[in-house]
Amino acid sequence: MIKRRRISITGRVQGVGFRPAVYRIARSLELSGIVYNDTKGVTVELQGEAGKIAEFLARLQSDADKPPLAVITSCDAVDIPVIESEAEFVIETSDSLGAPLSQVTADIATCRDCLAEMADEEDFRYGYPFINCTNCGPRYSIVKTIPYDRPNTTMSVFQMCDKCAAQYTDVNDRRFHAQPVACASCGPQILLTDNTGGTITAQTEKVIAEAAKLLLAGKIVAIKGIGGFHLAVDALNSRAVQRLRRRKKRDHKPFAMMAASIEQIKEYAIVNDTAERLLRSPQSPIVLLSKKPDSPIAPSVAEGVDTYGFMLCYAPLHYLLFAQNIKVLVMTSGNVSDEPLICKNDKALERLGDVADAFLMHDREIYRQVDDSILHFVDGQPAFLRRARGYVPTPIIMEKSCRRDIFAAGADLKNTFCFAKQNQLICSEHIGDLEDAEVYHHYIDSIEHLRGLFEVEPKIVACDLHPGYLSTRHALSMPDVKIIQVQHHWAHIASVLGEHSLGVPVIGLAADGTGYGTDGAIWGCECLIASLEKFERFGHLSYYSLAGGDKASKEAIRPALSLLKKAYGGKFTLEQFDWLLKRIEPDKSRLQMISEQLEKGVNCVESSSLGRVFDAVAAMLGLGSYNHFDAQLPMALEAIIAGGVEEHYEFELINTAEKPLQLDLGKMIRQIIDDIQNDRPATAISAKFHNTITAALLEMAKAARESTKLNTVALSGGVFCNRYLINRLVNLLKQNDFTVLFNRKVPCNDGGISPGQAAIAARIMAQNLGQKEETL
Asked: Residue 772's pLDDT is what?
């Protein structure tokens, strides 16, 4: 019996060779019909025997027939009337009507087939630095709007030659409807210039050879890649790396590196099987790996930390460059510190002319600048520190759909923003710190681009409670929307609940540096009883005063002095601790001023920040006195942890009927001072300190379980970027029979705030909570 069925498919099904796969399966089964992209995904109409249609559906979802990059989220089929005159199966043009819900594909690393062709002297794309196919290449960084067709990308200015056009239109070819398809005759070209824009050479082979020669000679080369420019130097050349630091004005933060092979990376870092799979994945992120002893990598690449950030080549241009006997390159974001990533040629020459000695550029426009993603490992599983190239804008799927579109503004540090549309959380790439004016303008522009790309019309806006956040101010300025303000640490825990599709309450342990509390204090070590609908503050680190507001996040003397005063009470004097304090703040008059601020409560705020405790302990151990970049001191403290230390310091949990449970670390501070005076190694003190924090958080979770009978713990917040801390805590919680959840699809730092805000707003609207402006 002949039937006709309409099949609606959603997920990552555009720009990945999905329609050709549908075509090939349908033709092999002698089915007639049509397939086309639409704004929700792909629609297929199939006509033929019922058994063959069932076989088609099975094959479409099998690994053997499904395109490698495709991900099917839903596949719904309904019967429709048979078309008597239909004789064959065809691919139709895209339907651009309606509200976009399809997943725009992320930028993908060059596949093995393309690399083989690029290395084949008989292939007409031999040595071509922009080779790509349906299974690889740029996507998100070049698309202007959807459907994802060539006219809607920055490749629209390149007219395909006959050879490329033949492949593009051949349904049996790997490049069928690969939108960036091109070759040396018709596609983008590379150019090497000096730092004034003067052409050095434009011949491809000479460009590559000359750029490699400059790098091996210790020069800094700005290289235009998939999502923007990198600043590259030889990572084995200490003078070159130090010169890059001076010119880029990035004195301390570790640099990322690139190599051409896993074998090369293994010369410098420890790579297990899980890390190797992640490095080799189509997303090709930066992966944090433990350093090998006596590595020849220039020390200034990553001082004060115990890891290297490595990625493999992911663009054809990278492979061609590394084929010139280059071993390992620093590949850091092409910008001046704290400014947005640069993606345009003229701006690169303008802003980086004093940084780079030469520019390796091309004429394919980057429509969206996208940083490299960064991952590390928690409990043996990959987890994000930065979610960007390779992963954005792949949505997080919610269990239930939103009735109205939602915009979540995110936080001001490590900003991302997020849209909720139907059942998708569409998160932006890493934007950066909004305190920089250019980053803030990039934030506003990015919101409009992603909103337009998915045709989101938000009627609900979620933002942070902090009145000083630029993201909050922007949200509050939006007209004709309902505002939902979400407490910072609740958003952290909600980010875990959202990605795990968990609607029931959990014990949430949120730990970071700064988050505005409902009582006006600065929170930062919280035990919450939280769902996506509400939260209760069950416990927190006992408050201590921070003098100078935001200065305390940079200057370790401020939390250190406050914690010492709190720990020793009336027994504390500056003279008594002069031996310790002078190495943190040698200016005695300034030290006296901060001390008086604390005593008089002038420009001070109460805080439960755990991040600032890490700063203080690092400073006490002589690891530095200033955070030149976020979490520099905590990272240094983590890097020196001695192995094999299981003991921890004492702490107290104070329970009163009127207040939440209080974690008091006064005993720990006093015992750390005793250990320092007794010349105990800083490595052992660091280990004991970390062990103390994990033991204390475990006890808070146990107290919460005793009170609520809940047994699931969600962990989030920037402090949990500390691998030792979170891995030890996860292990302890599991040993004590807790179910443990943590961020994997979004970062645990403030990059995960926006999806948490969006998930809360979506649930509140679904529950019909509130008819006026809400502050939650």
From this structure: 40
Cα gap 661→538, rounded to integer Å: 6
Distance CA 416, CA 398 (A): 18
Low-confidence ranges of the chain (pLDDT < 50): 769-776
Q: What is the pLDDT of residue 530?
A: 98
Residue 382: other Cβ atoms inside 10 A: 17
Those residues with Cβ within 8 angstroms of residue 9's Cβ, 6 or more apart along the chain or in another chain? 18, 41, 42, 43, 44, 72, 74, 75
pLDDT digit string, tens, across residues 680-703: 999 999 999 999 999 999 999 999
Q: Show the tokens assigned to 633.
A: 């001191």
Work out whether strand 460-464 and strand 406-408 pair parallel, antiparallel, or are unpaired. Answer: parallel
Between the CA of residue 517 and those of 465, 466, 776, what are the distances in Å? 8, 8, 11
List the structure tokens of 443. Answer: 């934030």
Residues whose CB falls within 8 Å of the CB of residue 250, separated by 6 or more in sequence, listed in order: 244, 332, 337
| Rounded-to-integer distance, Cα 524 and Cα 225, Å | 38
Is 514 strand, coil or helix? strand
Residue found by looking up tokens 């006997």 in the block: 325
CA atoms within 13 A on the CB side of 301: 28
Query: Residue 47 belongs to what H/E stretch?
Result: strand 42-49
Instruction: Write the pLDDT tens digit of every residue in 112-164.
Output: 999 999 999 999 999 999 999 989 999 999 999 877 789 999 999 999 999 99
Quick one: 679 exposed, middle or buried, by C-beta within 10 A (0-12, 13-18, 19+)?
Answer: exposed
388: which DSSP letter? Answer: -
The residue among 298, 195, 283 whose CA lies nearest residue 237 is: 298
Which helix (H) or strand (E) is 552 found in, with range?
none
Q: CB–CB of 19/95 below 8 Å? A: no
Task: Give the CA count within 13 Å in the CB-facing half-sphere of 562.
Answer: 29
CA distance 282 to 269: 21
Amino acid (1-letter code) at residue 380: G
